[in-house]
Structure formats: C-alpha cells, structure tokens
C-alpha cells in the first residue's frame, strides 16, 4: 500500500518541463556501465549538468522511493556518475527509457527532432494517412505492440507513436493536413509498392482513443477502411499500472486504495462521471468501450489482442496481427517488453475486492467477444 503524501500534482507545463529533463538525462549521457542491480550513467563536468541531475534525483526520489539514485563525482576530472539501482526490473526500465526516447516511440525534444518536425510540417500535403491504429487500452502494452509492428519491413512508423489527434479537440481542430505531417510521404509508399514490390503500411498508437466518445466517429469519417487494434489487459493490473504511472509523474498523491475510493465516490454521486486521466476503474470496463467502436467498424476491421499473451508468448501473438494487416510473416530477432516499470505488489485484500468489482464487467466482455480472458481469479 502506498500512503498518502503531500506532493502536489504537477501542472501541464511542469509535466512538459519534467519530460524534457528526463529526456536529457536518459539520452545525453556519455557512458553507461551495468551494475548488479541497475546502471551507472556518466555526464560531463559542468554546473549545468550538476543542477539537472540534482533536480532529476529530487523528483524521482519523491515519486519512486523504491529506487535508489546516487550522484558520484569522478575525483580525477569532475565528471559525475548517476547510479540508478533498485528492485528487479530496474535495468529494463533504464534500457527501455533510452530506447523509447531515441526512437519514434516518444522522441526526445532535441534539435534534430525539431528539424524533422518542421520538414514534415512543410510537406504535410504530400503525406499519407494511417492504414492501422492501435486504439488502446492505456497501460496495456501498446508501446511494445507498436514496437513489434514497426520492426516489420512492410511497416513504416509514424514520427511519434502517440499523436492524440482524434481524442484532442486542440489537435483535431487543426485538420487532417496537420495529422498527415506525422506519417511517411506518398512518394515513399509509391517507391515501396511499385518499385520494390513490397508492402507498405503505416500507423500510430494513441492508447486513449478507445475511451474517447467522439473518436470512433471521427476516425470512421476520416479513414473508414482503417484497421483497428485493441490490446486489453487484466483490468486489475491495468488499474494498478495506471495508478503507478500517475504516482511517478506526480499526478497522484493518494494511496491506490484512496484513489479507487475517490473514483467510486464520484461515480456514486454522478452515474455519468468519467475522468480520462484518473479512470483507474472505468478504464478497465472494456466492454462499454468496444461497443462504441462496433457502431462504426465491422468485426473484420478490428482485432483484440491479449496483453498477457503478448508478454508470455510474443511471437505467436504477433503473427496473427501481421496476418490481420495482410502483411507477410516475419519473425523478429528479439521481443523486448517496453515501458515496463517495477513497483511494489498490490495489497492482497485490495486485489480481492477488485476481482469482485470487475467480475460482472469481465463476464459481459467475454460474452461480447465470445472469448474468455480468464481474469476472474
């Protein structure tokens, strides 16, 4: 159980500043050394870097007390090492953070990526719309699934994994030309299909699409033949992962049990209540979310993937996804789970209560999909 704390929630501007700081720390180190329970990252001697690393450590010590952060200066030249150590999974967290920030999954806000964004904006009219969308759900493995798909030679990644176009009024109001700027050019597609005689698909993965009431209609009107992928996870584990994500980013200051009770209290006061940012429980009622998509898209345009199968047996789980997208079979060299983060186990009594809470919703989902995910244990 995580106790309540007095850390105030961050504003959007503070979140962006923190993201930039994290991106700098995890992408601009000079050297990396593996430790028994983590990694050591080396940075140059400078007062600016010392200040950055102090801010980084201060923020993460508050939100992740089960990690250890130590700054160790080199005696000979004043360079500094950041040691990040902790429980099992710490090494994977450091590795995936660097991979995500140095790829199209969540590119770091640096000069190179800024230039790419400007070029894409200037050529937006020459770019294609996506062939597939991973619509969610949040904290269910969308990053790993998207990474696997974009490793197929017939799939060209979007400039960002998450674009949040169809669920953001600000982005959506900028129009489809703005959206096209995130995707490859029509010339690249022509060259792949007509010259090299290879398949060419592109797509994005915005995990909150599945929740947004306007997203299904908006997507249908813009790209009616798009293929949709939904990845679902045991809603109890999804809720706890969602909560831990908010705890790390200082968007939550209650215990998990307190956060759940807050959501339940608001639901009791208003049956229509829904908060997409703190939908720990509502985010796992998948049957209601999928029903909204069925109104616009036929079954042959949507595939549901189980997160547990993707984690335990990625190769045979990804193969039907390639087939669904009409891509030839392709075996990845490695299947690395991304965006995973170690955190303490949930209290057994809390899990028992959530099993009972989600059981009727899960049963309706199993009937709706004619598929049992075996989550009610």
Descriptors:
five-stranded parallel beta sheet; 2 domains; 9 strands; 15 helices; Rossmann fold; alpha/beta; 377 residues; single chain; globular
Describe what is shown at a glance.
This protein is α/β, with parallel strands linked by helices and 377 residues long. The protein contains 15 helices and nine strands. The chain is globular.
Tell the overall outline.
globular
> Number of domains in the coordinates?
2
Q: For this structure, what is the CATH class of the largest domain?
A: Alpha Beta
Order of helices and strands: HEEHEEHHEHEHHHEHEHHHEHHH
Number of helices in the DSSP assignment: 15
Approximate strand percentage: 5-15%
The number of distinct β-strands equals 9
Task: Give the proportion of residues in helices.
Answer: 40-55%
Mean pLDDT: 93
Strands of the largest sheet, in order across it?
6-7-5-8-9
Low-confidence stretches: none
Quickly give the structural class.
Answer: alpha/beta
- CATH structural architecture of the largest domain: 3-Layer(aba) Sandwich
How far is the N terminus from the C terminus? 21 Å
Rg from alpha-carbon coordinates: 22 Å
CATH evolutionary superfamily of the largest domain: P-loop containing nucleotide triphosphate hydrolases
Major pleated sheet: 5 strands, parallel
CATH topology of the largest domain: Rossmann fold
């Amino acid at each position: 159980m995580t106790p309540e704390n007095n850390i105030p929630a961050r504003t959007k501007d503070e979140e962006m500043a923190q993201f930039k700081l994290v991106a700098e720390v995890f992408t601009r180190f000079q050297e990396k050394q593996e430790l028994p329970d983590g990694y050591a990252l080396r940075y140059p001697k400078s007062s600016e870097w010392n200040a950055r690393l102090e801010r980084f450590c201060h923020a993460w010590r508050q939100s992740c007390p089960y990690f250890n952060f130590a700054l160790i200066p080199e005696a000979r030249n004043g360079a500094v090492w950041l040691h990040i150590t902790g429980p099992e999974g710490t090494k994977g967290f450091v590795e995936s953070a660097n991979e995500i920030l140095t790829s199209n999954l969540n590119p770091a806000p640096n000069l190179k990526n800024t230039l790419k964004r400007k070029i894409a904006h200037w050529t937006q009219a020459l770019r294609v719309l996506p062939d597939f969308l991973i619509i969610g759900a949040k904290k269910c493995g969308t990053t790993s699934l998207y990474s696997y798909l974009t490793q197929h030679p017939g799939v060209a990644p979007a400039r960002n994994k998450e674009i949040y176009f169809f669920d953001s009024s600000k982005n959506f109001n900028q129009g489809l030309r703005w959206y096209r700027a995130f995707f490859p050019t029509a010339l690249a597609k022509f060259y792949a299909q007509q010259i090299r005689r290879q398949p060419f698909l592109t797509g994005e993965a915005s995990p909150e699409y599945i929740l947004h009431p306007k997203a299904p209609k908006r997507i249908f009107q813009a790209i009616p033949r798009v293929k949709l992928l939904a990845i679902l996870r045991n809603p109890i584990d999804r809720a706890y992962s969602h909560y831990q994500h908010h705890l790390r980013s200082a968007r939550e200051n209650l215990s998990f049990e307190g956060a759940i009770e807050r959501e339940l209290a608001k639901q009791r006061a208003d049956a229509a209540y829904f908060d997409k940012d703190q939908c720990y429980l509502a985010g796992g009622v998948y049957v209601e979310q999928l029903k909204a998509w069925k109104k616009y898209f036929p079954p042959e345009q949507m595939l549901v993937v189980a997160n547990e199968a993707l984690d335990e047996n990625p190769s045979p789980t990804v193969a039907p996804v390639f087939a669904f997208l009409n891509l030839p079979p392709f075996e990845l060299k490695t299947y690395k789970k991304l965006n995973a983060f170690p955190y303490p186990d949930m209290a057994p009594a809390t899990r028992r209560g959530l099993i009972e809470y989600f059981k009727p919703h899960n049963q309706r989902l199993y009937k709706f999909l004619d598929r049992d995910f075996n989550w009610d244990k």
